[in-house]
Amino acid sequence: MKLNVELVPLLLLFFNLSLCEIKEDDLDLERQVKIMNKPSIKTFTTKEGDTIDCVDINKQPALDHPLLKDHKVQTEPNLHVTSLRRTSSNAKSVGFGLKEPCPTGTVPIHRVTKEDLIRARSIPKIPSVAAIRQNTVSSNQHAVSLTDNMIENIKYGGGGRTTIYNLTVAHDQFSTHNMWIETGPLEHISMIVVGWTVSDGHRNGCYNVLCPGFVQVDTRMTPNGPLCHSSTYGGSQYAVTLHIEQDRNTGNWWLIVTDQKIKVGYWPKELFLYLRNGSLHIAWGGIGIAGSNGFCPPMGSGHRPDGIYEHATVFRLLHWVRWDGKSLPPSNKVTEWVDRSNVYDLINHRDSLYGTGYMISFGGPGGYCKL
Questions:
Q1: How far is Cα 111 from Cα 154, in angstroms, rounded to an integer?
Q2: CB-CB contact of 194 with 242 (8 Å)
Q3: Which of 42, 75, 142, 211 has the lowest CB atom count within 10 Å?
Q4: Per-residue tens of pLDDT for the chain, all 371 residues
């Protein structure tokens, strides 16, 4: 029997650490819930039914991370971010964030429940692009990506503008649309991933909140928030512009939503072994994680790219950040990866289509993908 469940795309944040552990014992789960839910100054209930607590910025759960014991919260970045150049695309900016901000000095934190912790056991780990290229990912993970491998260019950030679609996925499927910043050896890689995702079992965005480390700063924007609009195949297009940049003074990696120049927060430099001074690699693309029946979820719009802007998810205005803060398009040393399951595809349009800057389109309907 098929259930009609309303799914919404969520802003996805992820970083590669092995220090996040979900205990199995029921008593341990209750202890973790008490530790993670901090005293609140104010509380909201969203229309999706989630509880948001406004927590003292200096007492937020991120600071429980053992590597951040002596970390001092940075409230303003020293970056070179400017609005990306206008293009001929008519995609509208997607809406997100709380209708009412938290009080000054506090940040919005999703309240965690024991059920969130239980669901977290089944949340898949996003693989690095390096693992994808070397074919060392789990057999149920299927990816498409474009990677800039010009390691002579140290990348102090990057970003792009991606269109958002609402997808229908099974309870044990996962469909993500990402930008990766990563460097280091495969077995100890340092990695940041940002993008949007659709998953039946994780609508509340618990993917983002259960492993502490991302320091929130904005009073209205929460990284697990639903994206309030989505594109229509062949019709209206909605997009979000995401930008990550390392503050060269502090070493922290900031997430900026450049549609409104929202400084959401940052990943502290203490979290990373190999992202202390820029990154060697940056990539854009998507991952479909198959369910137990061997079927992959749809990715992007649920259609393969065919060269028509309104038919597939696109990532346009692709850029990386040079040492002086200048944003540049991917180099001529890029690698395209398309999973051999043949349920997804990717087209590299480079800088030639629609005046949209450097662009890729990708995705597909999914289907049986067990190899």
A1: 38
A2: yes
A3: 75
A4: 333 334 456 666 655 543 344 445 777 888 888 888 999 999 988 887 889 999 999 999 999 989 999 999 999 999 876 555 555 567 888 777 788 899 999 999 989 888 877 777 777 778 899 999 888 888 899 999 999 999 999 999 999 999 999 998 998 898 999 999 999 999 889 999 998 888 765 443 334 555 668 999 999 888 777 777 899 999 999 999 999 999 999 999 999 987 778 899 999 999 999 999 999 999 999 999 999 999 999 999 999 999 999 999 999 999 999 999 999 999 999 999 999 999 999 999 998 656 689 999 999 999 999 87
Q: Which residues of 328-367 are buried (b: 16+ CB within 10 A; e: fewer)?
A: eebeeebeebbbebebbbbbebbeebeebbbbbbbbbebb
**Dist CA 366 CA 27 (whole Å):** 39
Burial label for 45, CB within 10 Å (0-12, 13-18, 19+), is: exposed
Q: Which residues contact 361 (CB under 8 A, 6 or more apart)?
A: 300, 305, 307, 309, 311, 312, 313, 314, 315, 346, 347, 349
Residues 16, 21, 24, 27, CA torsion sign: negative
Q: Is the pTM of this model over 0.85?
A: yes
User: What 8-state DSSP symbol labels residue 371?
Assistant: -
Going by their DSSP bridges, the two strands 238-246 and 92-93 should be labelled as: parallel
Both tokens of residue 184?
Answer: 């280091």
Please tell me whether residue 337 adopts helix, strand or coil conformation: strand
Under DSSP, is residue 143 helix (H, G, I), strand (E, B) or coil? strand
Q: Cα dihedral sign for 22, 26, 29, 35?
A: negative
124 vs 187, 201, 202, 309, 317, CA distance in Å?
18, 12, 11, 30, 29
